[in-house]
Specification:
The radius of gyration is 17 Å and the shape is globular. The longest helix is centred in the C-terminal third of the chain and has 24 residues. It folds into 2 domains: 101 residues, Formyl transferase, N-terminal domain (Rossmann fold), CATH 3.40.50; 110 residues, Rossmann fold (3-Layer(aba) Sandwich). Helix 2 links the parallel strand 2 and strand 3. It has 215 residues and is of the alpha/beta class. The protein has an 8-stranded mixed beta sheet, with helices on one face. It is 33% helix and 24% strand. Bound molecules: glycinamide ribonucleotide (GAR). The site of glycinamide ribonucleotide has 13 residues, from helix 1, strand 5 and helix 6.
Length: 215
């Protein structure tokens, strides 16, 4: 199975998936990392890990759709089966979504549907929630509205700042994202309307649902 990752920044989630592939936990290959910005951590990480990366300059296209057409053509050429958005800070157009139905995942650092979009940690603290977390979901036409695959919960303390919270949530992101990719690659994900079911998974009372198995 061929996996592509799209990133715009630091690239720590990209690395967590790439390392899981490299170690053999995920039986697939990372076909490419696509970035929409130069000089970012994700590129450095790709070079260290020996992953092929491509920069697609968003200013070279007159619309979001044209830009996505270019990306889709690269992904189709590489025969990619699964696209993982990992800190990719662009909204993907219908052109992209229709080319990879139920094959684009995203990670968002909040318990969706709470705090979609930008600055979720700031919003969580401002709102005063007592737990937050991370969500891996399929991408649909809305912003962070697609079907949820797995969520992990993190308690919020009165001392937390958006940076301490983002650090705590990130540690769990690095576990749930490769896990979701592995479930997909192993053919265990079933989609029923809005509901995503991981076959034979443990839907227990743990703060990560379904329970992690490999990460
Ligand atoms: C991660 O926390 C990810 O959940 C978030 O950006 C960060 C990227 O970090 N994504 C979003 O906010 C998307 N709406 P990374 O570049 O180190 O993976």
């Amino acid at each position: 199975m061929k996996i592509a990752v799209l990133a715009s920044g630091r690239g720590s989630n990209f690395e967590s998936i790439a390392k899981a592939v490299k170690s053999g936990k995920i039986s697939g290959e990372i076909a490419v990392l696509i970035v929409d910005r130069k000089n970012i951590g994700a590129i450095e990480r790709a070079e260290k890990l020996g992953v092929n990366w491509i920069y697609v300059d968003p200013y070279g296209y007159s619309s979001r759709e044209d830009y996505d057409r270019k990306i889709v053509s690269i992904l189709k050429h590489l025969q990619v089966d699964l696209v993982c958005l990992a800190g990719y800070m662009r909204i993907v157009s219908e052109v992209f979504i229709e080319s990879f139905p139920n094959k684009i995942m995203n990670i968002h650092p909040a318990l969706l549907p709470s705090f979609p979009g930008l600055k979720p940690h700031e919003k969580a603290i401002k709102y005063g929630v007592k737990v937050t977390g991370a969500t891996v979901h399929f991408v649909d036409n809305g912003i962070d509205t697609g079907s949820i695959i797995v969520q992990a919960v993190v308690p919020v303390s009165p001392q937390d700042t958006s940076s301490s919270l983002s650090q705590k949530v990130l540690e769990l992101e690095h576990r749930i994202y490769p896990q979701a990719v592995k479930w997909f690659v192993d053919g265990r994900i079933e989609i029923k309307g809005r509901s995503v079911i991981v076959k034979n998974a443990n839907y227990s009372t743990l703060p990560i649902v379904p329970a992690l198995e490999d990460f």
